[in-house]
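Is 3-hydroxy-3-methylglutaryl-coenzyme A placement plausible here? Inputs below.
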Amino acid sequence: MNTGIDAVAYATPRTFVSFDGEWAQKRSLVFTDGDAAALTAKVNRGIGLSQMAVPDAHEDIVTLAANAVRRLLEQSSIELQDVGHLIFATEGGVDFSKSASAYLLGALERIPSLAKGGPGSTSHICNVEMKFACVGSSYALEYATALLRSGMSSKKYVVVVSSDVARYERESNAEYTQGAGAVAFALCQNPSLVTLDPTPMAVASADERDFFRPLFKDTPTVDGKHSVGVYLNLVEKAYQNHCNNYFKQKLKASDSDVLADTAAFLFHVPFPKMAEYMAARIFLPFFEDVSEISEEQRNEKETDFRKSSDFRSIFEEKVEPGLTLSRKIGNIYSGSLPLCLASVLKGASETQTELVGRRVIFFGYGSGACARVYSGVFGGGCEHAGKIIGQGARGFDRELSVSEYERLHALHSLQAEPCAIDPGVDSVVKPSGEIASFGSLAEPVEKVGLRDYRYVG
Ligand code: HMG
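Reply from A.M.:
I modeled the complex. Tokens:
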């Protein structure tokens, strides 16, 4: 049975910080001895980012998810009545117990254009929050596919939404790898965008300490260099499993067949340069045998290989189109890999690149740690999807000053007490025609701490 992705939409905040200008001037005092141009060059070329999305006061994982799901349903003319399951992948849950998916359904019911029946109109939808750092979205996709393949989905569509706000300590070297956004997929049988290959998703797991956020902290504890190494090793292992079990055994495809047939290698993007490191790890063995050399020798070879014309031409053709959106949005944790698909579809429609019938390989990674690798084949709906994907997606139209950004960063910190938000006062860009967070309730006693999401017309 053919199952896979039938529609894609994404949502971001409107507010952003650019890595040139004021931010670079201020942070260069911390990072580059006051040399702002050197810091901008490092973040642009060394990390691969030109700016990062920053959530406004009224935005969080639920509002971003609501925007993405709304756009998905409206652009694809999918009725909520035809959605049987909604799976919410996030590592930034808003409650220890109440599922973010329940808040999301409540929010969707408040959007006048969606909720024909108002309160209770989504009561038929099975919904759940799934967490495994950034790789939660791959687990959600696996669950969705299993529901559809087994016939356990009572309706035509399963919706997977991956939504996160990546927030690190200010003035740390992870600060410029923040971001915020959500990506929604509709999955069904005989999908028009990507038919997932009929094989189990490959896996490589390890109990790791590369990145975690303890319950009492509002930014993660991260060992950046170590996390890069864990990512490389686990994703490579999972890819080798997928390659052996599916490409080599089932499809009888060699490395060069895989390279030729694959239009898009989509890597989880904590920052775009990471995709380059990972691509070198995957592609180098296509050119030479590195199985017998030491890790140090291999790292050196990969660094040289990244500069070679062989690597650059494959990278530009098969990896770079997946990174375009991430370069401006930043890390959106669970949504980062799904965002690559949106980016490829959008780019292919702009450059009139033919994707139909060609393979796409997904390389998922989540700290803690786990890698999932899976693949599929692009379908006939890609061109249309690429054209509409950007439509209605709010662009970044408000650059933040450093003081505005720092105020919002502080406002999104873990709240020890219920905290009301007044978007009319607290937000930089006031919400309009969308779901907004009004924070959490301080009263009555039976509602203390309950999140307050409202539609602002
Ligand atoms: P850093 O100290 O900013 O960077 O840390 P660096 O010193 O390693 O330099 C990076 C690159 O910039 C190097 O390139 C430099 O040469 C280059 P390379 O040599 O490797 O090719 N560079 C320059 N290039 C051009 N012009 C210049 C210049 N200066 C230097 N002037 C790090 C980077 C990623 C470690 C840090 O930002 C961090 O800790 N980020 C957060 C953790 C992270 O993203 N880890 C990624 C893997 S873990 C993961 O993906 C999971 C995650 O998404 C969470 C989850 O699963 O939930 C994070």
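Short version: The first helix runs from residue 22 to 31.
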